Amino acid sequence: MKRVLIVSAAMGEGHNATGRALQDAVRRLWPEATVGWLDALDVMGAGVGPLFRWIYVSNVRRTPWLYEFFYRSLWRMRWFAEASKRFVGVWCGIRLNRKIRAFQPDLVLSTYPLGTAGLDWLRRHGRLDMPVGAWISDFAPHPFWVYGAIDLNLVMHECAVPPALKCVPGANVAVSAPPVRETFRPGDRDTARQKLGLPPDAFIALVSCGSLGFGDVEDAARELLDAHPDVVPVVVCGRNTRLLERLRPLAERDPRLRPLGWTDEMPAYTVAADVVVTNAGGATGLEALACGRPVLMHRPIAAHGRANAALMQDAGLAMVCERDGELASAVRALIAQPSRWKEMAEAATRHCEATGELTDGLLALISAARERSAAR
């Protein structure tokens, strides 16, 4: 029995969403393999997951300056990045070692940087001889994402390769298609709107800021309603029930607004949308690109959110709306100039076509795993 191990973490839904896309691909390419999962934060110890999630959420919501300071310090002070990665690598690696030895995988795939740190430490200490790949699902890599002992570090665009190599010169870096499930692909907008009960001739703006509903989501909804009478904002609140409750009175005053809680129909909503409005540039942004939809980055969250937004804009795949009114202006411009919308949508489609299939990078790792198994 062949075994593939996915190392992820429940830090929002983005890392696990990447893992599910990889799991689907493994089952197509290597159907005889069993797929197992480890949550790196749970492996690191009881209470680590809740603590790290609380720190992350608190930083983003209450002390973004502190999160930004930590992020910039990783770039500015190489010694600080290396010391932090070694510390986490030892902590996670020692505990991962027991789990990996018990599962005996032929291939390990990581979607979470702290988990990759542990895998890198194990490889450097001779305790990990199977192939290892790491999918960097942030559009912009940062030093905690990239590791030199990992067989393959997968980034999301050619323009992400230089910053990845700046993080770790000499690391093996390749470009992957967006690691999203197969249901996120270009489709017929009218059919999707009919299925979801959305007006066929409206300008649909899908607002999705992750499962935690981070950021200035209410302000985004108000700006979109004020932008143009044809705009219908569909706001996915995820698991943020407080955000959903705050939006309901606004929806009662203006029924164009469609607030939603958790939904399993995100592929259909993405295809139905004219644009996707988000603020972090992780899984939601990648899902939009996979469906050929332009991305509007509204007030990107601190640190990795701002870095993702800047790189996506440089690649021609997003518009960054940082100040008051910029989101409404961007939407009005896209409505007034359909050719501009078409240009962004085509850029997203070309990017996905240029990067090939998600399976390209995975196939190389599976081939290496098969060769290793045959040689044993």
UniProtKB/TrEMBL annotation:
InterPro entries: Diacylglyc_glucosyltr_N (IPR009695), Glyco_trans_28_C (IPR007235), Glycosyltransf_28_UgtP (IPR050519). Residues 205-348 form the Glycosyl transferase family 28 C-terminal domain. Gene3D superfamilies: Glycogen Phosphorylase B (3.40.50.2000). Transmembrane segments: none annotated. Its main location: membrane. The keyword ATP-binding does not apply. SUPFAM superfamilies: UDP-Glycosyltransferase/glycogen phosphorylase. It is found in: Membrane. Keywords: Glycosyltransferase, Transferase. Residues 18-170 form the Diacylglycerol glucosyltransferase N-terminal domain. PANTHER family: MONOGALACTOSYLDIACYLGLYCEROL SYNTHASE, MONOGALACTOSYLDIACYLGLYCEROL SYNTHASE 1, CHLOROPLASTIC. Belongs to the glycosyltransferase 28 family. This is Glycosyltransferase.
